Structures are given as C-alpha cells and as structure tokens.
Amino acid sequence: MNDSSTRNTRKMRNPHDDEEEKAHFQRIVAAFKYYRAHSLQRVAKTEKYLRSLPAHHQALLENYHQHLTEIRACIENNYQIIKLIIKDVAYMFENVNPTGPAESGKAVSLHPSVADLEKVQATLKQFVRDWSEEGAQERETCYQPIVEEIVSHFPADLCVPQDVRVLVPGAGLGRLAFEIARRGYTCQGNEFSLFMLFTSNFVLNKCRGTNVYRVFPWVHQYVNNLHPEHQTQGVSFPDINPADLPPSAQFSMAAGDFLEVYTEKDEWDCISTCFFIDCANNIVAFIETIYNILKPGGLWINLGPLLYHFSDLPNENSIEPSYQVVREVIVGIGFEIEVCCIPSA
C-alpha cells in the first residue's frame, strides 16, 4: 500500500506458503474483531458474580459497580479504534490476497486464542510508548540516543542524509523509524507481527493531525490498581502528525521475518535495533545477518536487554547466552565495538 503523503509502504515479502499466510492473516483479523465480545464477557462475568453477593455487600460496592460501567464504555471506545485499524487491511500488501477463501477450505476459528486476544490488548498499550505525550519520557530514554548517534555519525554537513539508508528491524508501531526518516534519512522499518503492522499502518497512513483519537490502554488491568481511574485513564494519539515528514523523505515499512526478508549483502549504511535482538530463537543468526547486510564500515546501533522472548516457552527452542558471550559473538563475527554502555548493577 502506498500513501504519497507519508511515503509509507507495506509489503508481505517471501511468504513460505500463500495458504499459511492467508490463514495467519485471517486469524489476526479475527482476534481484533473478537476484542469487544471477549472483553465484555470478562466484565459480564464480574457483574454476574457481584449480583450474587449479599445485598449489604453490593451496597458497599456501589462505586465498584459504577466503575464496571465505565470499563464497558472504555472497551466500546477501544473497539471503535480497532475497527479503524482493521478497515481496509486487505489492501496493505502488494503480493497476497489475504481475504479470499483458502483453497484448503479450512475456516479460521471464530473464537481466537487467549494468546492472540492478549496480543490485541498489548498492541493497544503500544500507542502509549510510540505515539502519545505520556510516552515521551520513555522515547527520550530509548529512541533519542539512537537518533542522536545516527545524526552524529552521518551529519548533514558531511553527507546527504537521503543517501544514508537506515534499517530498523522490530519496528513495532514505527515511531523510531519515523523519527529517523524525519531527520531526512532514507529509513525502512521491518516488522513481523501483523498486530503491529495493522496498527502502524493505521497510525502512519490514516492518522492526520495530532491527538485526534483516544484509547484506554489499561482498561484490562484489573489488579493492583490504587484508584479506579487508573484503570480507565485515556491516552490521546498521535502526539505528532505522522504526515509531518520532509517532502524528500523516503520512509517505508516491510513485513516479514527479518532473517528471510533481508538477505542482500552490503545493502544498509546503518541498522538500528531497539529491544529486538533478544526476540530471536538464535541470537547469533540475528547478529550474523546484521553484519552481512551492513555495508563495509556500516554502523550498528543496539539498545535493549537480553530478556529472550522464546525462553521457557513451550514448544519453542531457544538459546540465552549472557551479555559477555553475546559480546564475544559480536566481535567474533567481525564487528568492532566503538561504544558500549552497560548500566551498573
């Protein structure tokens, strides 16, 4: 999908199997569509139990009963945003038809898994970090050092920023890649999760203006709330107009597995990874690919922990080397470490 005002593209690249891709696409759409029913069922269950309590208990919980009504309203609001997110998603990708019937005849389940529904909820929370005023401090901590390093290494007085090609794997909702492109660099974000891709497409290609939408990201946080309003607090987005890019900006998003999409050697001047490299089953494969696709003398900037996404997940293989071992791998593959900042214990 192309939008001339933001120069963002979406492309499904290198699918293993069109049928598998189609079923996966439809499964994620179903999870978004089921958000409202699933969320309201949770509220209805609590309300039913509340009505079964002794009358004097219910009287003491009158404010809580009103709070559940407010939660319902927040869920309804979120669902309006979700409908905008999944509207026209079938046209996001250039080389697949994800909405047509599968040749296998297998229907996508009308009741998505709990894991997929939790990912919908988690995606709503991503609005906070990437596209709200409330997330500014976190972006200042995580994204700004990366942007500053790029500007320092590729200053406008020594190079043409548009000629510098920057890749951001694990781009999420696209804010870091957007900020790099806003400085004039040619930037591509890469993302595997369709939950993130659907939502970033909505923000980057559909949102115009600032703080035009409102989401309630913590409405599903039922425990450990100090005040009722903490659960029903709303957040406006986007805090900046996604259309505010330089006329010459080259900014795109590519969908797919990082290891499968990026196979061309010596293609990128800079690769910026933020909370990404520990998302691999085999972190060495990520580091090796980064080295191979960087141009000779290219720059890799990395920020984030080693939480290892697949660690201890059933039916998933994973290695979890320590930082010291990861550093040995980085040097062994051929990188020269120029700057290293490790927080003190």
From TrEMBL:
GO terms for cellular component: cytosol; nucleus. Its EC number is 2.1.1.22. It is an enzyme of class 2 (transferase). Residues 1-21 are annotated as: Disordered. InterPro entries: CARME, SAM-dependent_MTases_sf. Belongs to the carnosine N-methyltransferase family. Keywords: Cytoplasm, Methyltransferase, Nucleus, S-adenosyl-L-methionine, Transferase. N-methyltransferase that catalyzes the formation of anserine (beta-alanyl-N(Pi)-methyl-L-histidine) from carnosine. Anserine, a methylated derivative of carnosine (beta-alanyl-L-histidine), is an abundant constituent of vertebrate skeletal muscles. Also methylates other L-histidine-containing di- and tripeptides such as Gly-Gly-His, Gly-His and homocarnosine (GABA-His). The keyword Cytoplasm applies. The keyword Cytoplasm applies. Pfam families: CARME. It comes from Cryptotermes secundus. It comes from the Eukaryota. It is found in: Cytoplasm, Cytosol; Nucleus. GO terms for biological process: carnosine metabolic process; methylation. This is Carnosine N-methyltransferase. Its main location: cytoplasm. PANTHER family: CARNOSINE N-METHYLTRANSFERASE (PTHR12303). GO terms for molecular function: carnosine N-methyltransferase activity.
